[in-house]
């Protein structure tokens, strides 16, 4: 058997080692601390927004993103069947339904139209990331 192929291999150098030891030495290793505060402030400055939040996982980020869009019970979130479980889990956490199908890797407009019969589409997104585009206007009628 050959060498393993890592999905996300670590990239740890001297700067990361120094930061890790700095966090351990400061006593701020959980749940938050000055390094997380600094990271959030640096993200705000870099992307030009007033607020940023560091989360513990991609699942938490997907969940928070869906909540920020107002996705909830009765909504349908279009996603691909070729994704990580975190995508579907984040959708379920909001109370929304998941409309994943083989066609969900196509354009967001096609995704929304192919799933709109099952309920109002709250968000659409490509494989592995939800949401990345604004949701289409909500409609209580189908036609």
Summarize the structure.
The protein has 143 residues and is of the alpha/beta class. Helices cover 39% and strands 10% of the residues. Helix 4 links the parallel strand 1 (76-80) and strand 2.
Task: Explain what this protein looks like in three dimensions.
The chain has 5 helices and 3 strands, in the order αααβαβαβ. Helix 4 links the parallel strand 1 (about 75-80) and strand 2. The protein has helices spanning about 15-25, 35-45, 60-70, 85-95, 110-115, and strands at about 75-80, 95-100, 120-125. It is extended, with a radius of gyration of 19 Å. About 20% of the residues are buried. It is an alpha/beta fold.
List the helices and strands and how they pair.
Elements (H helix, E strand, L loop, with lengths): L13 H13 L7 H14 L10 H11 L7 E5 L4 H10 L2 E5 L6 H8 L5 E4 L19
Parallel strand pairs: 1-2, 1-3
Helix pairs in contact: 3-4
Give the assembly state of these chains.
Answer: single chain
Average pLDDT metric: 76
Structural class: alpha/beta
Strands of the widest sheet, in order across it, are: 2-1-3
Secondary-structure element order, N to C: HHHEHEHE
Give me the count of strands.
3
Principal-axes shape call? extended
Indicate the percent of residues in helices. 25-40%
Distance between the termini: 55 Å
Uncertain runs are: 126-136
> What Rg is obtained from the alpha carbons, in whole angstroms?
19 Å
Beta-strand percentage range: 5-15%
The major pleated sheet works out as:
3 strands, parallel
Tally the helices. 5
């Amino acid at each position: 058997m050959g060498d393993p192929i890592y999905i996300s291999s670590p990239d740890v150098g001297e700067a990361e080692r120094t930061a890790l030891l700095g966090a351990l030495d400061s006593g701020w290793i959980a749940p938050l601390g000055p390094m997380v505060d600094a990271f959030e402030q640096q993200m705000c400055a870099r992307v030009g927004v007033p607020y940023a939040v560091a989360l513990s996982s991609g699942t938490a980020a997907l969940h928070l993103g869906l909540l920020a869009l107002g996705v909830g019970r009765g909504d349908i979130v279009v996603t691909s069947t070729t994704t990580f479980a975190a995508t579907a889990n984040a959708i379920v956490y909001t109370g929304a339904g998941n409309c994943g199908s083989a066609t969900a890797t196509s354009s967001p407009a096609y995704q929304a139209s192919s799933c709109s019969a099952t309920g109002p589409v709250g968000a659409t997104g490509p494989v592995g990331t939800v949401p990345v585009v604004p949701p289409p206007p909500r409609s209580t009628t189908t036609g």
